[in-house]
Amino acid sequence: MAREFTRTQRVADQVQKDLAQLIQRQIKDPRLGMVTVSYVKVAKDLGYADVYVTVMAFGAQTDEEQTVKESLSVLNKAAGFLRHELARGIKLRVMPELRFHFDESVDRGRRLHSLITQVNQPEPGSESTDDSADKADEE
């Protein structure tokens, strides 16, 4: 019987939890938007950790694409500091190098939802046609 969770998965889960707290509490850069750590994928040799984040613009920041770029820049510049802080809390021989990426799955899901909603919306003229057909069936 195989294990449900591999060691790399357990490390990734712990890195995700600790990193979310560190970003919220330790990084005080005003260019950083509201960042959520979506998931972390750790290499099998624990050399790298790809951290996928979602970013929400707030306040004076209205251009979401610009906010994402600035937030990723801030996070990638702070990767060394964050890695050091993670190493203080997680006892590993080698702490993975952090690489931050924007998680596009949320935007993709939002876009698919809007497309499905558009397809399911009845056309303005079709409602009256359906109603008249229902009334004819009742008579």
From TrEMBL:
Biased composition (Polar residues): 116-127
UniProt keyword list: Cytoplasm, Ribosome biogenesis
Subcellular location: Cytoplasm
Gene Ontology terms, MF aspect: ribosomal small subunit binding
Major location (coarse): cytoplasm
An annotated GO BP: maturation of SSU-rRNA
Region of interest called Disordered, as start-end residue ranges on this chain: 116-139
Record GO cellular component, one term: cytosol
Keyword Cytoplasm: yes
InterPro entries reported in the protein's UniProt record: KH_dom-like_a/b (IPR015946), RbfA (IPR000238), RbfA_dom_sf (IPR023799), Ribosome-bd_factorA_CS (IPR020053)
A Pfam family: RBFA
Protein family according to the UniProt entry: Belongs to the RbfA family.
Function of the molecule: One of several proteins that assist in the late maturation steps of the functional core of the 30S ribosomal subunit. Associates with free 30S ribosomal subunits (but not with 30S subunits that are part of 70S ribosomes or polysomes). Required for efficient processing of 16S rRNA. May interact with the 5'-terminal helix region of 16S rRNA.
PANTHER family: RIBOSOME-BINDING FACTOR A, CHLOROPLASTIC-RELATED
Assembly information from the UniProt record: Monomer. Binds 30S ribosomal subunits, but not 50S ribosomal subunits or 70S ribosomes.
Record-given protein name: Ribosome-binding factor A
Organism: Marinobacterium aestuarii
